[in-house]
Amino acid sequence: MRRLSAMLLTLLLPLTAAGQSVSSDGTLADQLLARPPVQSNPAALTPLWHGRDGRMLMLKAERSTNAQALRENASLAFHPVDAPSVLTTGLQYSLAPNLQAHAEVSQHSWVNQPMRVLGSEVGATYDVGRYSLGLSVGTKSTPDNSAVLPRVLPGAEPGVDGLSGFDSSAQLNARGRLALGNRSGIDIGASVGRIHLLPGNLLGVNTLDQKQLSFGVDHGSLSGILVGRTMQPQAGIPGAYTSDRRWNSIDLGVTWRLPWRGSLSVGAQNLWSSGSPANTPVGPEPDQSRTPYVQYHQDL
């Protein structure tokens, strides 16, 4: 029994040390632990370590709808209605008073469907209060390549961006924010990346290049985002399409953070689009039909 108690005390020593390092200069840590979630950002931040020089390691956890995830970090391959639930977990480390690095993983999942898309991202953000600039690289992939992604809405193509043969993607992201006050701000984002499709997909090409621009505005509990995308086959790769074939679209969404820790999002996928959505001899092209949506999310 004594040996068991000694072993438990030994295992708890690192946690005790971590608690002491947080509380050694615990003013900032206590403020973070006692601070209620901000209406415009439902992510939970928990301090893990706080150094005397101001450096801090924090754990981030967030569950949101895909429409909300687009507001915080516009996803290159996803439209607002492509996945009802997004779970994000990661670490955030303060390298300097105005410089933070982060590493996180995410999961896009569907209700009553076994399919999921896993993502990972690493990046850094320079924040001076009124404005901030962040850069990151990320990937997304399907753990089971043999399965077809589920149908999102009746009449809409199943998959990501209307691509049922989605396999993986990699992207470079940039995001800037200008604060207009304590409760308002403007966000601008840009992403470039590449989408890989499963072999033998109906589109007839294996790789697509995609670019994206986003513009967001928020004031208090209200936020809106406008996202423009362009997608085309990779240049120099044989397939059913040439590199001058493009599909363009614009998404629009508005989210209202409700007083009871819920949120309501309304908008339209493919509010404007160019490129023929009709089936071709090689199979269906990416679905660009206009799709309005209403999503409700409750934070637990």
Q: Characteristics of this structure?
A:
300 residues; mainly beta; Porin; globular
How would you sum up this structure, described in words?
12% of the residues lie in helices and 49% in strands. By secondary structure, the protein is mainly β. It has one domain: Beta Barrel (Porin). A 13-stranded antiparallel β-sheet has the order 1-2-3-4-5-6-7-8-9-10-11-12-13. The N terminus is likely disordered.
Give the domain tally: 1
Gyration radius (Cα, Å) is 22 Å
Report the total helices: 3
CATH class: Mainly Beta
- Following the backbone from N to C, one meets helices and strands in this order, namely HHEEHEEEEEEEEEEE
Q: Which architecture name does CATH use?
A: Beta Barrel
